[in-house]
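EI: anyone free to look at a 347-residue chain?
SC: sure, send it
EI:
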Amino acid sequence: MSTVDTAQSGADVIPEPNGTVQSSRRRSHPVLSFVARRIVAGLLTLFVASILIFIALTVVPGDVAEVVLGRNATPDRVADVRSQLHLDDSLPSRYWSWASGIATGDLGNSMASLAQGQVVPVSGVIKTPMRNSLILAGLTLLFFIPICLVLATWASLRAGRKADHAISTTSLAIGSLPEFLLGTLLIVIFFSELGWFPAVSTSETPLSDPKGLVLPILTLLAVSVAFGTRILRASMVEILREDYVAMARLNGIKERRVVMRYVLRNSLAPSIQALAQVAQYLIGGIIITESLFNYPGIGQVLVQAVLVRDPQVVSIVAIILAAIYILINILADLAVVFLVPRLRSEL
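SC: here you go
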């Protein structure tokens, strides 16, 4: 075994104070404890978020029944809607009914539809848009990973040179642009000037109209790649300066193997954190991007629910997005701990 391999494999062996090697069985308990702590912390965070969301929608000025009824707000209709929505109950009782419904899968009914005499479950309102948003986010992440790895590797191997400066400057410039401005520029270029792609999505099933996905994906991809490339590039530059990388090169190991085996492997933790932060960014970026391109996703549902004053739909979408955000954090932390042996020893 070479010196480099010994240094690398030694990272997985954690000696006890008396000189014995700590077994994986003994390390499993701290890991399980860490997993349990992260899950409990995530649930507590989601609980606090649910309270804040509920209070924020409750303290909005005006009677909810009158707001959703609009011009049809006769005294009898207002009383009927207030009864259906349990608006005369105490605030804790209303929160418990709302939160327990979510916990059991009952997302309630659209208040705007109730005002029109229709019963439309929120689950039916958000099902297809949520699927469409997941498609958009999934495709963005699918392209993000290879593009980000290639750009970050190229820049880090040429640190301080023209290629590195070009990639760093371009990513900084693109990353500083807000989504709506970047999306507008893409519409002007690829729709108005070149006529290659449509400016809006015209299909309720995005996969049946691939061209309608191009500009929304490019908008999300440009900002996320710019952000992820800077993080990975900085991490890889530090790793390239490590002694074991220099030793690998002195031992005659090919540069491609050095990059793949030592640099990229040790960049896993920063890569996962970058991917998690991009996934979290997509939660907010998708809402803006979907509105700009009229994409039939959850962002469009949220915007429409705000416009028609439907607090039930707004609250459900908000709590789902909060849950996804928290879940991404937990999964990223767990992935880093399981992939980096040194971190497991410090739990």
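EI: Confidence is low (pLDDT under 50) at residues 1-28.
SC: 👍
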